[in-house]
Amino acid sequence: MDTDIKNEIAKNILKSNTSIVGIVCKDGVVMGADRRSTAGSIIMGKNHQKIRKVNEFVAAAYTGGVADLQLAHKVLAAELRLKELKTKSRSTIREAANLLSMMTYRSIRSPTMIPNIVGTLIAGVDENGKASLFSIEPAGGVEEIADYDANFSSGMPYILGFLERQFKKDLSVKEGIELAKECIKASTQRDSGSGNGIDVFTLTKEGIKHVVSEEIVASYK
Predict the structure, then answer these.
(1) pLDDT tens, 195-220?
(2) Set 18, 63, 188, 202: catalytic member
(3) Does the domain spanning 15-215 belong to CATH 3.30.720.120?
(4) In CA terms, which of 41, 86, 167, 169 is 20 to 30 Å from 179?
């Protein structure tokens, strides 16, 4: 990786101010995220949904600059729809992940005053019913995840530390939902860039479902 790009990513990784997590289960994939959006040390929004449906079979969780991730999401959805119209078939999750990886790679290597820094967890269900999870780093590298990942969100150290002890192979989606909730709760307790709410999505043969939508409210005693 180019040294300048590597240094830029290193400076921005823990400024992404987000907690996202993806967990691979035996019967699907679970994704979770917090709701806080920030600008530096200022909390700009308390109800920002960070997991978004790309289409009826694919969803993605993003960390990074809001404008960059919004553009990436729109372009990805449009490209997958165009491919579907042209070929009369839908893209696999691997194809969608590699397309987004290429878009990310190209974006950070285009001459610009402000680099594009976006990390993504992308998951979905193929036509054969198999659910998959991929992680795309801010430099554009793509990797299929066999267990869990939090990409380069600022809550990543807390989430991965928690999952190192709590994750078990062949979890059910039902168990994965509770684990994802606990991941986000753990990160919002320690990461100042994460908080205000929890969203959890499941991706299974039955489709994409928004199964948890909770607001975190401060209580005073």
Answers:
(1) 899 999 999 999 999 999 998 776 66
(2) 18
(3) no
(4) 41
